[in-house]
């Protein structure tokens, strides 16, 4: 039963990965992308995940029954369920955000879609866009990404732009490998700043701003995503030369 639950979960997530890649190419060809479809798939994915967990819990329960008597096993199970019921509302209250339900669902949908789309392209390679994003386009797209999560927009600062240009010039003057990604945060007691974040990225093909943000900078479980989701950043600037990008944030 446990093996079947794991198999079901793996097969379903693999199917979602391929579906995400397919939907990406449909959307890229300007065919209407049905957001409600993917939102529904999120809940289906959650249901499949819960079913897999249930299979695992039932298997665990059977093993516990073999070690303990049935009455003791049921008592332990009821205690765990009761503790979950009591603790869960406090967890929700603590993590409640002042966002509408629609925004929460849309954000969750985009996060899941980006996860599976990134997974698809990690396996099969990232597609090339018709041209490389410009600095202003990428900067505006980053602000759109932050605004969609109720984070403040970044102000373009000449001081931050100077730092980004200097670092980009250094990047162009040395040898490096394609698909370089460097993320650093450090104190910076100059130019009326306290701290800066430095993101250096080189790619081997052109990306439009939307794809650069969604497929490269905000991939799930990456440091770049954590940096961009930090609400404390006030300033920012993007500098691009060919397929090399220097993104700086400051506060």
Explain this structure to me?
The chain is α+β, with helices and mostly antiparallel strands and 251 residues long. It folds into 2 domains: 2-115, no CATH class; 129-250, Pathogenesis-related Protein p14a (3-Layer(aba) Sandwich), CATH 3.40.33.10. The chain contains 8 helices and 5 strands; from the N terminus they run αααααβαββααββ. It has a 5-stranded mixed sheet with strand order 1-4-5-3-2. Helix 1 packs across helix 4 (101-124) and helix 2 (35-67) runs antiparallel to helix 3. The protein is elongated and about 70 Å long.
Describe this protein with a few key phrases.
single chain; 251 residues; alpha+beta; Pathogenesis-related Protein p14a; 2 domains; five-stranded mixed sheet; 12% strand; elongated
Task: Briefly summarize what is shown.
With 251 residues, the chain is an alpha+beta fold. 61% of the residues lie in helices and 12% in strands. Strand 2 (181-187) and strand 3 form a beta hairpin.
Give the proportion of residues in helices.
55-70%
Which spans of ≥5 residues are poorly predicted at pLDDT below 50?
29-33
What shape does the CA trace take?
elongated
How many structural domains are formed by the residues? Answer: 2
Strand order of the largest sheet: 1-4-5-3-2
Which fold name fills CATH's third level, the topology of the largest domain?
Answer: Pathogenesis-related Protein p14a
- Count up the helices: 8
User: How would you classify the helix and strand content by structural class?
Assistant: alpha+beta
Distance between the termini: 53 Å
Oligomer: single chain
Largest sheet features? 5 strands, mixed
Radius of gyration: 23 Å
Which percent band covers the strand fraction? Answer: 5-15%
Average pLDDT taken over every residue = 76
The total count of strands amounts to 5
Q: Any idea what the CATH superfamily of the largest domain is called?
A: CAP
